[in-house]
Each structure stands twice: as C-alpha cells, then as structure tokens.
Amino acid sequence: FKQAVFEFPIPRYLVVCCRDGHASQTIRPDKLTGGNIYRTAGRKMKLQAATACLLLGSAAAFSPSGGGRALSSTRLGVQLEAPKTKKKIPKIEQLKIDSHYLTEPLKEQLATEEIGISKDAYQILKYHGSYQQTAREKSVRRTDGPGKDFQFMLRLKQPAGELPPELYRLIDDLSAQHGQGDLRATTRQCFQIHGILKGDLKTVISSIMDIGSSTVGACGDVSRNVMTTPAPFDTPEYNYAREYSKVFAQLFRPMSPAFGQIWLDGEKAATVETWAKEVAHHDVDAAMLKDTGLGIIVPDATEPIYGTRYLPRKFKIGVTVPGDNSLDIYTNDIGCVVITNDKGELEGFNVMVGGGMGRTHNKETTFARAADHMGFVPKDQIMEVMKAIVAAQRDHGNRDVRANARMKYLVHTLGIDNFKRLVESYLGFEIQPWRAMADWKYSDWMGWWEQGDGKLFYGQHVDNGRVKDEGDFRLKSALRAIVDKYNTHMIMSPTQSIIFRDVDPKDKDGIDKILADHGIKPIEEIDPNARLAMACPALPLCGLAQTEAERIMPSYIERMRALLDRMDLPGEEILMRMTGCPNGCARPYMAELAFVGDGANTYQVWLGGSPVLTRTAYPYMAKMKNDDLEKTMEPILAMFVEQRGEFEAFGDFTHRVGAEAIEKYSAAYAPGSVFA
To answer: Beta 162-163 vs 489-492: how paired, if at all?
Structure first.
C-alpha cells in the first residue's frame, strides 16, 4: 500500500467493524484489498465505499484517491489494536491531564504565603489569563527583600476588542490600586494589567468576572481572544464580523468549573459575559455539543471539544470583511472573511488556515507562516466547520515537540489540500471553493470617521500600546475623563491603539479638547511610521526578551525618519515592527521592515513583508547592533530610490529584488552617494 508523501509505519493489525459493532474482524494490512487510502477521525472513520482501508497514523490525512462516489449505506469504522508499549506523554501534556481541568496545582499554590507560584502552577495559571513575571530591573520591582520579585500580568478576554465604559473604569481603577499604574494594549485587541501581586490576583480577577467580562482563555493552549477589524462601521458586513467574533469566542471557551471555583469561591459571576448575552440567539452551546459521530466531540462531559489535554498549543482566530486587513488576518490559525450577497445578507465565510508567527532562532524547523485559503463555508455550517478544524489540530497537532505544535506546522506538513480533506473527514461533506472577493487594503482607522449611522468614531494612536500618565503626556487620565463625561464605548485595535465608537457629532469638539488638554497630539501630528509601527513589551518584565523592544522602538522610528529625510524621502511610509525575541508577539514577520531581538542590543533584520500584510518577510541580516541602524538601512534605501517601480512600496520592492541583490548592492554602496 502506498504511503503517499509521508513516512509513517503501517500498523501490524487493523480491526475492521461496522458502526454498530457487529461483524468485526482483525486482519493484517497486507491482506487488505482495494486501492483507496483513508484516515481516521479520532478512533473511528467513515468510508465512502464498503471497501477495505488502511490507517496510516495520527498525522496522515487522506480522502479516497478515487472520487465522486456517494456515501454507502454501510458505514465501516477502523480501529488500531492497542499498542504493546505506550509512548511517554510529554511533561506539559501530563500536567494538563493531572490539573483536573486547570485546577491544580494552581489552587493549592495560590493559598501559600509565598510571593510566587511553582512552575507547574504557572503553566496552569496561563489558562486563567495570567503570566507570572519577575522584574529584571530594580526600578520596576514591586516587592522588597532578596530573591526574585514575582508579580503577575493579567490579560483580559475582549472578543472583537470591545471595551464597555464600565469595564474601562474598573480596569483603570484596578491598575492604579493593584498594578503598576498603567495599562498595556495588546496586538490581539485586549488590555493587560501589569504588576499585580499574588495576594491581589483574586480581587482583580473576580472584579472583572463580576462586571461581565473575563480573563478565561486569554492565554494557554486554547482559543485565544478572537479578533476582528476594529472599524465600527454600521454596515451588514462589519456587523456580521463583530457578531461572529463573539460567536466563535463563545463556541471555544473553556468549560472547566475551575475558574469559578478558584476566583469566585464556587459561586457564579454576578453577571454573564457581555458577549455571551449578545449572541445568545445563536444557541452556541447547542452547536458546541452537537455530535455527528465523526470524531469532533470527545467523550468528556467537562470539555467536549478540548478534552483533558486541551490543544497542543495556543490557537488564534480572526474575522474580517473583504478588503479590510487591519487585523493581520493571515497570521491566525483560522481566518474568516464575511461573504454577503447583493442585499447585504450573510451567505457564509471564506476560511483560511495555518497562519502563525512564533519561531526559534537557529532552528530551521520553526518558522513564521501566512495562512492558506481553504474554501468557502455557508453560514449554517460555519460553527461545525470551525469545530472540525479545531478537532483536527487537537487530534493531529504535534504534542511531542512543543516548538512544532502550532497548527501551521500541521497545515505545512500535510499541504492545504490534504489538510482540507482531513477537516472534511470530520464533517461528512466537502468544503466549497474559495470565493473571489475584493483585494486587501490596510488601514489603522485612526482619526475621525463617519460610522454610517449618523455617529462618529475616533481612532486614538497609542505608542506601542502603553496607556500611561508621564509628565505632560497624560493619556490614561484623558481616556478616563472621556469615558466619565461621555460614557464612551471603546474598541481595542489590532495595532495596540484605541477607538472611541458611537460618538455623537456634538461631542467631537469636547473629546478633541480633553485630549489636547492632557498633552495628546492630534493624529495629524503623529509620524505615519509611528502609526504603522508595533513593538512588544520585552524588557523589563518579559522573561523571554533578549533585548529591548517597546522602550527603544520610538528612537528607531525617529532615526529612520531622519534617514528618510536625509535621503529626500520625507513622505515615505514603511510598516515597521520590533520584538525582543523571535516569538513574534508584535507580528514582525509580516512587516515591510522588522527588527527581531537576537542578543543583547542586537537584532535580526527582516525585509519584504507586504504593506497590506498578506505574506511573510525574509531574514536579511543577523546581529545588527543598535548603533548600526543607519549603516544597515542607508544602502537598502538607496537601492530602493534607484530601482523602485512607480508607486512601489518598500516591502514590495525588497520582496521583488530579494536578499542576494540587496547584499550585493550594499557591499558596493558608497555612503551618502544616493538621494531621491
């Protein structure tokens, strides 16, 4: 039997049986007849004909090589006999099993007098929305005494980035009373509170849960915060994008009772999550529990989709409308694009799969990847298809090598066609072809815009997401003043900024005045390259950071602007991003120009990402020193000046010419010899 492009051992014996369990027979694979190759969904599989079949293994995924036959009335299942020896489960996977659905050892560790928690408890705490951190600089310590200064970062869950005024008031107060006094807007449309002490965690988390929000699933090996375009236009497409972001958030929420037991003493929250109430008419729980018998639902009463081991790694979902790529849709495990008819009625979604940013330096088996187009899914099938994709990753993702556990590696290994067939095997029907749609554009949606319903929205740029009061710059106080005076609803943007929505036109001047009185520049005075830029927090609190990002990125933008001006490119806009390590939290590998920390005060330089965020960049240089920014970038910009096409963006140019040509040009370049 042919094993196609994969090298997996053929099992010694197969058990072939009907679905009702009758007429089962154990046979050797070499005695099977028939040429079709199939895969299994979990333990059992359906056949498209009453024919013999071959089970290749947990990572293989195939449909019949012949096509077009209708489902037989006789459905067969295939099971492997139990292996003689069991493979040892990786420690992190065993920890999830032993946690009793994310309860221990966290619950026990939180009750101790220690200022921190154990490594095992820390891994479980992530699912509750928090990371344990330690100050790597004395100036940001929260506790006195010898030893590590343990503190906690708490991340909110905000599907579609929505932030009601009462929630903002709460987290503003909590950050002042229990945190380090500021807030951090993330690249996944939610706020983080830094500097929380262990003894305050319960107060902070329970307060957030009782107001109708949550931190559950903001971190950990589950579906993370579901993103969407932040533009609050009142059109059918944009309304559907926001609505289904909340549907998917509710569909894939962890169901463990641990969250209420630990943070609310076993009681229910004072109110249901805001987004859950808004999508109640979809009957999401019924859709979650729907079991077609094809392996999506696991026999687990607590976590019917995730099971005891949850997913192999974190899982990210984004939703947008045709043409609007303000959220980096191709970086998600699943990206959904709303498709409507001429009347604005929802028909379904174009679905892409397999995006992801994280990688490891000097490990070529890890890489950033842009998602592949999988196909179109009608609206009445979308929840089941989403479940099938998650189930495929749950069952076939690489749990043995955590660095390769994201779904992008499964899609890459199988190829999009075979991955699609894998998903279809959980569904019992084929996924339709991808539908043509408008070309992608990128906008940060900053400044004033008409919303489409007689109201306005305003995008407020936030440098690298840090909402703080510092000297004459008092952004945190300005936001609170606007929320208190106008009861304003906000939306977090995917670029670490904030949008005020549903603004009455008569309040526009008042909002502008509050911002100006608090030292906030109008959007017209912000360098476009600063608006385009993103950086992760990195030092001093991130334990993975190899060098600076957030704190040094403003100086890189200023230096790049000075270089552009010197080369007579004053209006040039380049989408730049920076991270302090290769994990990719600020999505650097999609940028036109990226700096990825690879040592103390050194960075990898990445080039060639798309200005509309549809492809990954390539590594151009390693170990660029901080002082060498201008020396590195001047020859690249000079080549851009001399050889760019009409209206060609910097990222498109560097993608077209490639690293080798840039290296050759740079080697022969005389500094100061080229100007636009």
So the answer is: antiparallel
pLDDT in tens, 430-465: 999 999 999 999 999 999 999 999 999 999 999 999
pTM of the model: 0.88
Residue 149 confidence (pLDDT):
87
State pLDDT tens for residues 117-149. Answer: 999 999 999 999 999 999 888 776 777 666 788
The residue among 303, 355, 301 whose CA lies nearest residue 330 is 355
Judge contact between 193 and 204, C-beta under 8 A. Answer: yes
Any idea which residue has 């029907």 for tokens? 429
Task: Output Rg (C-alpha) for the chain, integer angstroms.
Answer: 26
The DSSP output letter for 521 is P
Mean pLDDT, all residues of the chain: 89
Cβ–Cβ under 8 Å, residues 398 and 404: yes
Of 59, 88, 93, 61, the residue nearest 396 (C-alpha): 59
Tokens at 439, concatenated: 């070309």
Tens digit of each residue's pLDDT (9 = 90 or more) over 622-655: 999 999 999 999 999 999 999 999 999 999 999 9
| DSSP per position, 185-240 | E-TTS-EEEEEE-GGGHHHHHHHHHHTT-B-TTSSSSSB-PPEE------SHHHHH
Contact 621, 336 (CB under 8 A): no
312-323 burial code (b ≥16 CB/10 A, e <16): bbbbbbbbbbbb
Backbone torsion region of residue 164, taken as left when φ is above 0, otherwise alpha when ψ lies between -120 and 50, otherwise beta = beta
HEC profile of 325-393:
CCCCHHHCCEEEEEEECCCCCEEEEEEEECCECCCCCCCCCCCCECCEEEEEEEHHHHHHHHHHHHHHH
Q: Give ∠ CA 462-519-552 in degrees, rounded to 5.
A: 45
Q: Cα 435 vs. chain centroid, distance in angstroms?
A: 24
